[in-house]
Amino acid sequence: MSTTRPFSPGDRGPEPSGASGLPGAAAPAPEGSPGGSAAAEASTGGSAAAEASTGGSAPPLAPVEPAQPSGGRQVRTLDFADQSGVVPLARDFARQALYAWGWLPAASADKRAAAEDVLLVVSELVTNACLHAEGPDRLLIAWDNKVIRVEVADKGTGQPAPRTPHRAGRPGGHGMFIVQRLCLDWGVQRTPGQAGKTVWAELGAPA
Fold first, then answer.
1. I want to staple 73 with a disulfide (CB 3.0 to 4.6 A). Which of 3, 141, 144, 197 is the partner?
2. What burial letters (b/e) apply to 65-103, b meaning 16+ CB within 10 Å?
3. In this structure, are residues 59 and 90 in contact, taking their beta carbons and an 8 Å threshold?
4. Nearest to 8 by CA among 205, 187, 198, 192
5. What is the pLDDT of residues 71-119, one digit of tens each?
6. Are 97 and 118 spatial neighbours (Cβ–Cβ below 8 Å)?
7. 25, 78, 84, 93, 112 from 57: Cα distances, Å
């Protein structure tokens, strides 16, 4: 697993223009002050805390691009411009996509768990962008009948990484550890000459 690989082994490569809009090129950069960047970016307090700060109710979803079949692949994107309560907004958007693609309602406990894993990864990536990158710019979720790919674009310059060593009882620092444990692979894409990055993660379809 690499946190700098622009796409996972066997992937078809960076998303075409118009799907993710962010052609990938790996170039990790430090976040904030020297010496504490990885831990700082990884030290998310978890999605529950971020969602609680929104007052428990999500605003109406912003206009989004409809599902776009492309050789069996479907893509949906959500723009966070001028939106508040972005964590519950992102979860609601991802949940709507899972219903559209047949992951929900789940017919078994395993399928329910797989759907909840997707929602948790979305929450953690968006929360991490809120805490360490001045908030997310856009969420992309794509489905090709085998793998769901989640991408969160932000303007941060840091390199997300699970806090090492991971201590379950320690406050904060669990977000990227959760992503690493739940996903087939994850990493960071950067566009040369442009600020920011896209953090991506891929999860397998339920059996």
1. 144
2. eeeeeeeebbbbbbebeebebbbbbbbbbbbbbbeebeb
3. no
4. 187
5. 589 999 999 999 999 999 999 999 999 999 999 999 999 999 999 999 9
6. no
7. 37, 18, 11, 14, 23
